[in-house]
Amino acid sequence: MDLLSWLLIAGGVCYESCYPPARKGEYSVRIISFSHPIPRFLLLLLLLALSDTGCSNKTEKPKTKAPAPVTVARVTQKDVPVELRAIGNVEPYATVALKSRVAGMITGVQFKEGDDVAKGALLFTVDPRPFQASLAQAQANLARDLASANNAREQAKRYASLWQEGIVTREQYDQLQATADSLAASVASLRAAVDNAKLQLEYCFIRSPMAGRTGGLTTHPGNLVKENDTALVSINQIVPLYVTFALPEKDLATIKGRIGGKLPVEARVAGSAVAERGTVTFLDNGVDPATGTIKVKATFANARKALWPGQFVNVAITLDTRKGATVVPTRAVQTGQQGEFVYLVKPDATAEVRPVTTGPSLDGMTVIEKGLAPGDTVVTDGQVKLVPGGKVAVKGGAPA
What we know:
Elements: H1 3-10, E1 13-18, E2 28-34, H2 40-50, E3 68-74, E4 76-98, E5 104-109, E6 116-117, E7 122-126, H3 129-165, H4 170-203, E8 205-207, E9 212-214, E10 224-225, E11 233-248, H5 252-258, E12 264-269, E13 276-288, E14 293-300, E15 312-329, E16 334-336, E17 339-345, E18 351-355, E19 357-362, E20 365-370, E21 377-381, E22 392-397
Parallel strand pairs: 3-22
Antiparallel strand pairs: 1-2, 3-21, 4-11, 4-15, 5-7, 5-10, 6-9, 7-8, 9-11, 11-14, 12-13, 12-15, 13-14, 15-20, 16-17, 17-18, 19-20
Helix pairs in contact: 3-4
Protein name: Efflux RND transporter periplasmic adaptor subunit
Main location: membrane
Pfam families: Beta-barrel_RND (PF25944), BSH_RND (PF25917), HH_MFP_RND (PF25876), RND-MFP_C (PF25967)
């Protein structure tokens, strides 16, 4: 209890407080009645204490609210591409797992892991000596039977003349002719055996079937390999390559109508400022009923080898370009109960709520279909402190 209250009670004064106080730190009271006479010295103290107090209806003047600090930007016009965006996966244009077509020992590996190899480049050598011997044997057999076949053919010719002259019988001629035909067939068989031996010998030298990049080795010189067994190395063709992605089925009609016109596509690796450019080359023959999407494949030249098989990339298909579209930073657009709106900074440095109709967004900019004009100033940061008609203080961005 403060001193004034104590004195009033001690003097038998009935009182009530009046709020709010006239000035900060003071009390205002109204004396209602006295229960008994007040001593003069006590009344004097009361008068002195109450000389600066009293019930007052005066209130403090409302404080002027400080302008809200905001960042602003100008409404501009620019050409905005209309795009479809998706996440794609990079795939090699072709991939091959090389296997040996003959059994034997690896005697040479003519490349290093991760090398770029040309089509036809020698990669592995299987010991060729057993196959060289088989080829030599087949060639010798062919030469033997070829000589016999030539002799039999000549004898058959001579007996044909003798048979016509009646010197030999028809049976003797037929027997020699059959022998010549049999040897001719044997020669043809041995020619095929020689060709097969050459082919087996050629299989000892394993070459790259395409230009590409080699992966990790699974075998080394001295290892034995079997025919058509474990892959020796995998080769991916990465120039060119594919990027596969999925689009919603609602965009199917748009893609179908333009796929024949080399629909342009951009692929960008996360964190890269440079986009690779390609074209849509494949549209799947059905929509996935589980996801409601359709598979699309684009081909990229990949001359800089910026894309790598297995990567995930951001894909953008450019459908059209809107010339001179009105745009604002996307962060300026707010969403309320009545729809989308922006805070417009008026020439008198006050904020106005302006409903807008938005279009597509791209790279942090949003197209404004209706509600703003080029040159308007909108708030891009600090909207939470704004009220319609409130003052603003521009702290950054375009001058208001």
